[in-house]
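Dear colleague,

As promised, here are the two records you asked about, laid out in our usual form so they can be pasted straight into your sheet.

NAME FIELD: protein one
SEQUENCE, THEN STRUCTURE:
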Amino acid sequence: MPIVWRDEMSVGNDHIDRDHRYLLCLFNSIELALTHEKKDELLPVFFEQLFEYTKIHFGREEKLQLKLQYSGYYEHKKQHQEIVESLKEINEELQAKVPRYREGLIALIREWVVDHLIVTDKAMKTHLSKYPREYQ
């Protein structure tokens, strides 16, 4: 079932929110690809896009956190590193066209989306509210 952006998911920063919307679109594309008859062709393409854009997003988010002197920066960065490592392993498997898909692929990504993007990143909202929405 696709995850649909809702206003309550906003962290209060246009750039981060835009990234989050795009990441949700990529996640939804992966979920859809898993049901398609050409999933072996589609899944590696969409997943690599998710993996690459996640790294871009995390870099942007960490840069902003440092600029704002966000108190949760180090714990947040640690979570980013763990997520990237998990996504890297899955991406390598998919790019190598390993005939099996990692058990719980969608559950893992959904957990990341729900727990990190929607819960952990929301913790920044109070801090970000002190700055204009377009601050970068």
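NAME FIELD: protein two
SEQUENCE, THEN STRUCTURE:
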Amino acid sequence: MPDILVRNIDDALAERIKAIARERGWSINEVIVHVLRHSLGFGGEDVTRREIHDVAELRGTWNPNESAAFRKALEAFEKVDGTPLFADTKKTDQAPK
């Protein structure tokens, strides 16, 4: 399939495309292809199914609960009492006994 670059998209149009992508859980590309297919009269196949090689599907995302749990887990690292998490077992500043 060929790739097509579209230039000079105004801010309002770009924001609407992004909003639709967020609402439907689609990539921006999926929204644009959907709009083009339907506006040119092709309709038919919807973009609701992604192929497995789609990068947006492979990258994964965290839902709000997962993000909150991760942030909470990171807080433990911020509360370390000044001691290093990992100590160097080699003591280079002392002379051998």
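A couple of things worth noting about protein two: The chain has a mean pLDDT of 76. Helices lie at 11-24, 28-39, 55-59, 64-78.

Best,
R.
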